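To the team - fe (ii) ion complex, inputs and output below.
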Amino acid sequence: MPTREWKFVVPEIVFGPGCSDRAGRFAGNLGMERALVVSDPGVIAAGWTRLVLESLSRTGIETVLFDRVSPNPRDVEVMLGADVFREKGCDGIVAVGGGSPMDCAKGIGLVAGTGRHVLAFEGVDKVDAPSPPLVCVPTTSGSSADVSQFAIILDTVREVKIAIVSKALVPDVALVDPVLTTTMSPSLTVNTGLDALTHAMEAYVSSVHQPLTDHLAIEAVRLVAANLEKARDHPNDPLARENMMLGSMYAGLAFSNAILGAVHAMAHALGGLLDLPHGLCNAILMDHVAAANYPAAPKRYQAIGRAMGAAIPEDVGGSLGRELVVAAMTAFKKRLGAVVSLGELGVTRAHLADLARAAAADPCLATNPRPLAVEDITAIYEQAL
Ligand SMILES: [Fe+2]
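Output:
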């Protein structure tokens, strides 16, 4: 089959223990004199925001802290942050935290750069003006918003999470420091790690996967499968944390360029309607979506199962192949203690119609390996109840 055209976008990446301490130097390289530092109360309490603020101060950069960021960041928080950016005369943004502060920071940049409402950018390639410079310092190994062209923002009126996908959202610099993940609780480690695993899986089976994303995605599956339990049980194990951060970053680079699929479309719907944790939603849905998608990409799902350590014969047939792949995913979730049904999170049958409608409209569904109609999506939600 002839190669179709593909492209790959990536920020400047610095990876390694301690590299977050150089935030000031990199912000200075981008011409920042007064940075809006976007973080959240949990990350501030862990002490990581202070380290970055001190690094910025050491290089003579003034700082304005903005921490009004919820899990599942809201449109109103983005607009408030953009007001602060403008009122305080900031000229760049430094995000310190997990996916929520980083996505909020991206939204603030869009609004600050254009003067428009953040919801105006919903969808793919809707950004037509540059944003202020952005440095991201991730504190989880999961979202990979620090390397991606995605921002997910909660539309508080419609109660849906919107996806903004644009090359303009790729940060200028990602300072990927595994040390900053050592304060994550076991449950946050598991949920964010399963988010990373889902990024890798969905990128690998995406209808627009390409050679670079393939290499990154399958290695990300291997790294997360081999290190997530260790990172949960030994939070200060430097190698486990480094491997998880590397796996998460590979997964982020893969999904940023190959986009995602039905797990994320359906998880976004759950986060929008019921404000549920993103990683947890992905974890619950992952094997149910794999069962539905398998016939569209059997070889690719088998490769994912093998990268997770499952013994799947090369010549395995249809239904057995699907069983082995799905069993590998379910067993991995069980080992991590992450298995909960949607019902346990308060999802009921009465929610399913709204959820399925929202998921069907999510741009992530466009690259799922097979088309899914509203009724297919409803059936998957039902299985996960
Ligand atoms: Fe995700």
